[in-house]
Write a structure and sequence with these properties.
235 residues; alpha/beta; 8 helices; 36% helix
Amino acid sequence: MEEQNFAQILSAQQSVGDCLLATVLEGPDQGRQLLLGGRPLLVRGMDALGSMQSPDICILEGVRVFVQPLTAPVRLVVCGGGHVAQAVVRLAQVLGLPVCALEDRPEFAAALEQAGAAQVLLGSYAENLSRLPGSKGDCYVVLTRGHRYDLDCLTQILQKPLSYVGVMASRRRAELLRSQLRESGAAPEQVAALHSPVGLAIGAETAQEIALSILAQIVQCKNSTPNREGFTPSM
């Protein structure tokens, strides 16, 4: 198998999700590093390491290996392509957040691409979300054009690892969404973590102001989370 530059692998990791970095500590391969990912981990003896939360030294086939969980960089996933969604994509660029945007209408998908989304998935929200690799650093913002689309998105999103999820809705509709999610089997703690109405209460009125309130809330949540093992794109 062709070896890749380590920096290239780390960069590609943004589209893969969380993984493990293994460093061989002894023997002829001492110092060699392997980036291990995928579901399941396709390396003999590594399947038991999939739930690791902190670095540790493990013995694999008689060799000491230092294994470090890596969390992919923060990624913003925007569901919907209206004016607010486009404003969120533009502001996320200013903050240096890579955006994956989802839309089921070609013209709105094109607008998201023009706004600067790094990746645009056109098609069914539910289907695209089901195929999207997840990471603990992912932030989801649901800004679709209707209640049933919001529910489709949230049903998939709440099954993934994430650090933030918000949906634009009135208080009444937000409670209806929470009730429907609980009825569909979502865990109470997942439903409780849903930010809706979305964004900080800054009296936002325009699409740009609403986008600012959403990104401010995401930054607030991100920076209130204890530091995790991981890497930044500059590594």
